[in-house]
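Summary for the steering committee. The consortium agreed at its last meeting that each partner would contribute one worked example illustrating the joint modelling workflow. Our contribution is presented below. We chose a case with several input lines so that the handling of multiple components could be demonstrated. No manual editing was applied between input and output; the record is shown as generated.
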Amino acid sequence: MEQPVVVSGLVKSFGAQQVLKGIDLAVNRGEILAILGKSGTGKSVLLRLLIGLEKPDAGSVKILGQETTNLPMDELNEVRMKIGFLFQEGALYDSLNIAENVAFPLRRHTKLSDAERDKKVRALLLSVGLSEDLEKMPSDISGGMRKRVGLARALALDPEILLFDEPTSGLDPITAGEIGKLIRQLREERKVTSIVVTHDMHAAHYVADRLVMLKEGNILISGTWEDLEKSKDPFVAEFLSDAA
Amino acid sequence: MTTSVTTATPEVHPAATPIPDILTPAIEWFGELGVFLARVVKALFTRPFEWSEFLHQLDAAGSKSLPLVALAGAATGVVLSLQSRDSLVRFGAKTMLPTMLVFSMIKEMGPIITGLVASGRIGAGIGAELGSMKVTEQIDAMEASAVNPWKYLAATRILACIVVLPLLTLTADACGILMGWIANTLAEPISLQLFMNRGMSGVMFTDFLPSTFKTLVYGFIIGAVSCFQGMRTTGGTAGVGRSATSSVVLSSLFIIVADVVLVRLIQFLFP
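What follows is the complete predicted structure of the assembly.
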């Protein structure tokens, strides 16, 4: 399967507002794709549609060759286990500590012994640069740490696809850079396919192999950073000026 | 040249009268609640059952509500004893006080006080917790990691509420009767044994069991309404506050309405 994520004619409305107006998109295996656009252009909605948290009004979503838009819950969950999702604020479970958060999907979907699970949790947290304070609660750690823990949790089931919703938002430039490095490192080590929704042009420039810019529910332009730089579109130029 | 213009007058059929705006949100709410409960029931019968979360929720809903329910039951018993004593003395029926107290506690006061206190304590907790999880995308994260939140979060909490309410009711009944005896003894000493003998002399299982088990319905109402309100929270932290409040208000309201229906039903089934 050379294109683990294929989206065609995707339409999504909320009330009278049509957020996505027919998106066609295919992501190659091992590729890091950045989805750019102003706030409210449907970037995060697109990610939620990919993992089945929203149902599209029209169009199709194929994940690893399987059409997911009308799958029953059980089958959709089988697909979801192959996808890791890093939410914007980490979305860590408040009632569980760092280690328990990462262990949560392992407890539910694997038959690892307690010792094996603990070992895997430590390895996952180490892979995102965390080796201490694993008993701390989410409310006691920084935003950067929350994203790292969220990323470790997203990696727990060894996903083939990773979805990142604003992975660098709210972070200082150094921590944002570290998260960017992690995303690239994951591709090198795990060969995962990644889709990164962001409006952080520095991060997009650094991590992405290809960029897609959304405007008013449609794809305005798709290509490499150089392709975007060559664009004469004033909207694209204005966006890129942020990274200059 | 003349042109005739005819204007079609729309025919309004009485059956097509639009639903008043005030009713639409209520109908939508019940419809969404129905869909939510259908999902929960379906999830409930899908293996594996979340036993550890269920036990955790039993503890959260049960043991942590116990002191409050016991206190409320005790206070009710004292008040019943104090208020009734004067009236019964006036009618020369003060020996009936234990019977009246026991009947009042087990048939109505214990169950309804437990239901209302639990709707405040448990309902607000569930509404706020799930509401907070919803607005911080924790429920989405759970769904994204292939864990069914209707099973893990809602079904376990609703079942826990159903199980603990009768147990809490027994606690409220016991505390109410005990404190009623103490209040009575302070005015006119009477042994606990005599008080209980008089109180329980006319009580039958048909008085005790239906009244206690009707709180299963209260538990269902508290669990279902609070989980539903929590899991549909929108609007950030303000929304969490609204969900907690509406969980308590709606479950209390439905408990009172259900009480009316259940009392009539019990009278019909156990005449």
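Chain A touches chain B through 27 residues (CB under 8 Å). DSSP finds nine helices and ten strands in chain A.
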